[in-house]
Amino acid sequence: MDQFYGIFLYVISLLTMGGIYAILALGLNIQWGFTGLFNAGIAGFFAIGAYVSAILTTAPSVRHLGGYELPYIVSFVVAMIVSGIIAWGVGKVCLKLRADYLAIATIGIAEIFRLILKNETWATNGPRGVSMIPKPFESLPEPWNQLAFLGLILATVVAIYFLLETARRSPWGRVMTAIRENEKSAMAAGKDIEKFRMEAFVVGCMLMALAGAFIAHYLKFIGPNATDPMTSTFLVWVMLVVGGSANNKGAILGAFLMWTIWSASEILTSRLPDELAIRTAYIRIFLIGLALQIFLQRYPKGIFPEVRPKPERRVNPAESPAGR
Amino acid sequence: MKYMGKFLFAASALAMSAPAVSADEIKVGSVAGVTGPIAELVDPIIAGRNLAAQHVNDQGGLLDGDTLRLVLSDSACDPKAGVDAGGKVVNVEQVVAVIGASCSGATNGMVQSVTIPAGVVAVSDSATAPSISELKDNDLVFRVAPSDAYQGAALAKLAYDSGVRKLAMTYSNDDYNAGIATVFEKEFAAMGGTITANQAHEPNKASYRSELSTLASGGAEGIAIFAYYGSSGIAIIRNSLENGLFERFFAADGMFDTSVIEQIGADNLRDRISITQSASDYADTSYQAFETAFSATGKDPKAPYAAHGYDASFLVALAIEKAGAADRGKIAAALREVANAPGEVIRPGEWEKAKALIAAGKDINYEGASGPVDFDANGDVVGIYSVNVVGDDDKWAISLLK
Lengths: 324, 402
Known about the structure:
Chain A is an all-alpha fold. Chain A is 71% helix and 0% strand. Helix content of chain B is 45%, strand content 18%. Chain B is built from 14 helices and 14 strands.
């Protein structure tokens, strides 16, 4: 009985982390999937969200800025706003760059943010990180506290999904795709592409900050190692690409699938003799790469490829833009 | 999807079938930063943990001859992975206690989100962040590794006692080294010494010449280095000597490795470097018992925290035996009893003796390889430190700091 209860608790934790990654992947999907912005600096906005929310909710501490003890809802919103403002500034400078240059610039900017957070010891306790972050619902008994937190995450994922689906079908979403596919023709159609790209970038970065805020409360601790680019930028890219970029269902599926592979593979490797178990720890990293290869061979456009919204009124089906 | 279905089925079948524990196996989680930034330091620590488990199993096992099995899980030195790894061993593997999770950040996350809520005792063998002492842990978090506060103070005293009054300092910007550096700076100043310059550096740079020139400009008599030898420490010493910037070095245990002498040269370092190390009393019988056994595995018994790994693992085994059942709550309560006085002294490797004493209802007091491991109210131990200098045989000569 304990065994099944344990597995039940583990599944809750898998879904919680998967859900947090789904928010990251959805944020990236707005930027890359719909608008074609190559943001390789997810970790930076993730870190900003995590630290802002952590500092706003913790009890006073001599080690870092804090003692505001604000309600979660305020800290989540502020984390998103701060990230949005910073993203706007970054966007002003960087969004004129084309795909690959934007990627390099965003990697650099994310590292700058991470280094600032790591070195401004008075505010963030530097490399030692912020500890004793409160967690929503933690006063409830087990397993209800974990279930309630999972509920919060999943509800957020679902809400974001419906918002993004509406946005995708709206004229706004269609302009985004037009920009991704052919900027010049979008411009020729009279669209202010700078403005649209900025909107996509800012909204995406705000979602990344929300995911960061959730992770800080989930772990009850945030430090520079938790925002390392390997697991907070590149893993998110893998999730989105495997799930299917430009498809919100794909982003969510990719997040849950890749996190499950990442986490659950160890349950198998930990059964090996110790010498091997130490080596297979590295194989798990290799597994993510292998999974990416296999899924891309099988599903070149991701498990759920992009589906273009149908135009509301079709005058002449032969001229519909469906066959892109 | 056909293949994926098969894969998932196979994976879930394995996952479901394997944890069905045979009645004679008691599992303890062994969470460590197997991958990640300190992978090379973690290897001997895991070997230490495993050696203790082997001693237990070779000398009659736990309780009624049950096997102690350490379930390894990777914390990657990352709080996300630490929480995930802790969740797996506690929930899926149903361990009765957890050792780990190596880095302070990963440990901090793991104990707060997983082990404390689950009521599982966690014994850390290498997390040294002072913030861990302050957690509201229901007496479920213990450390056999001393908090940084002790090593920073020990090194400051060593430097001051050696007659140096003006020091520059630099630390690698990670949780471990920054923590010791902060304490060092405060303590050295409190004794009356002066820190002329203090600068963080990022590890893994090709050269530290520019940082060192800045640091040397304040007229310091030497430099205190808080870094891991491989990622920046050796480069800092080399750059200092090559450019004649510093000739006297004080360092904490991240710098302790034979490769420092091999790469810089014993003659270049003689009478110039002093490294403190969270250590064992090498003259102590407990340590020597561990040293003999651990050397037989082909690993270096003086590797940082290897002895602590052994002690954490052995203590958890003693607590299980004392508790008399594989029961999480009872084990947590028994841990302090077996570690602290009063009681008959038990040393590393003496499992049979300990088992007999516990069976006879006698108190025991484990005196570990890393020190007496007596837990205070926070679950912390007082540190013992050694100082390492280059000896006449061109190897590290170790003596205990009093």
